[in-house]
Amino acid sequence: MADDSVVLLGAFAMQVYHYYMNYAHSDRPFFVVLVCVVVAIEIAHMCMATHLTYYVLALGYTNPRVFEQTPWSGAALPAVNGLVGLCTQVFFAWRIATVTSATDALKAGRVASGVILLTGVMQCAAAFAVTIQYSFLSRQLLLLRTLKTTVIVWLAGSFTCDTIITVTMVVLLLRARGNMSFRGSRNMMNALIIHSVENGAITTFCALIDLLTFLLLPDTLYYACFEYLLGRLYANVLMATLNGRNRMREIGEPSMTEDFELALGKSTRKTPPEVSQVQFRVSFGSEDDNVDEYELKTRTQGSATFCSDRGSQFDEDVSAKGRGDQYPCQ
């Protein structure tokens, strides 16, 4: 699992590079600071994990007594994982509060964000408690099982917090999708729902497996394998969410453009032979009553009153059913 942790760190490094190149210079200061904090935590975690791995596999080679007492780096890992988990949970609590701030679900969003923050702080405090108590036990590995209650609060808190985040995001996005009529917007909501479920399931599943292996297999070190991964998964979920914003917009853009064309009266289906192409002019008034003119091309069935690019008016005047509002020629 140490190798998997290094792989996840590499993926995290690529995510950070992508964020720096595309978002860091224009993003919210809160996001930039949060990313910097997570980067510092991840660097510290990798140093500790490397030291622990070297101590066990290199210095303790052929010496089984190395498992009796772990180094200081092994005791520090729970605190580091809890801290990076808290950073990710704070981000999603802020996101839920922001999404619901302009809707009738404002009160529910604030309650959910508050519960997420409290649960996140609880799991982080429990993770630090595991580190402190384990250090007081002289880092004796066999005595770690005596910290059962504290470990349960830590991992169960992470599992509960991630579940609340996933369920809340899915409910909010489903509700928002139901109020949207444009297909592009609905496609973007579908992508966000899938993204929320996938990211939430990753950390939720890892925290659950870590808890179960600690409770059901206390005489093994399987739980330590998932402990290596948990913090790295939190960091990658955070960066993937931040870096996925442009991709989510791109998912909705083609369909949203098509919806906008339909709203203007432009047909996206194959047009019949008798449909003619004309050029007309649309005028938009600005706040200072200046008029900007845009020439658009559309396909209309039948005939209607349009203005050409030179301002000449067509003589025929027949309705164009379903083509939006009629604009008089200037």
TrEMBL record:
<keyword id="KW-0812">Transmembrane</keyword>
<feature type="transmembrane region" description="Helical">
    <location>
        <begin position="30"/>
        <end position="55"/>
    </location>
</feature>
<feature type="transmembrane region" description="Helical">
    <location>
        <begin position="221"/>
        <end position="242"/>
    </location>
</feature>
<dbReference type="Pfam" id="PF20152">
    <property type="entry name" value="DUF6534"/>
</dbReference>
<feature type="region of interest" description="Disordered">
    <location>
        <begin position="306"/>
        <end position="330"/>
    </location>
</feature>
<feature type="transmembrane region" description="Helical">
    <location>
        <begin position="197"/>
        <end position="215"/>
    </location>
</feature>
<feature type="domain" description="DUF6534">
    <location>
        <begin position="158"/>
        <end position="246"/>
    </location>
</feature>
<protein>
    <recommendedName>
        <fullName>DUF6534 domain-containing protein</fullName>
    </recommendedName>
</protein>
<feature type="transmembrane region" description="Helical">
    <location>
        <begin position="151"/>
        <end position="176"/>
    </location>
</feature>
<feature type="transmembrane region" description="Helical">
    <location>
        <begin position="115"/>
        <end position="136"/>
    </location>
</feature>
<keyword id="KW-1133">Transmembrane helix</keyword>
<feature type="transmembrane region" description="Helical">
    <location>
        <begin position="6"/>
        <end position="23"/>
    </location>
</feature>
<keyword id="KW-0472">Membrane</keyword>
<dbReference type="InterPro" id="IPR045339">
    <property type="entry name" value="DUF6534"/>
</dbReference>
<feature type="transmembrane region" description="Helical">
    <location>
        <begin position="75"/>
        <end position="94"/>
    </location>
</feature>
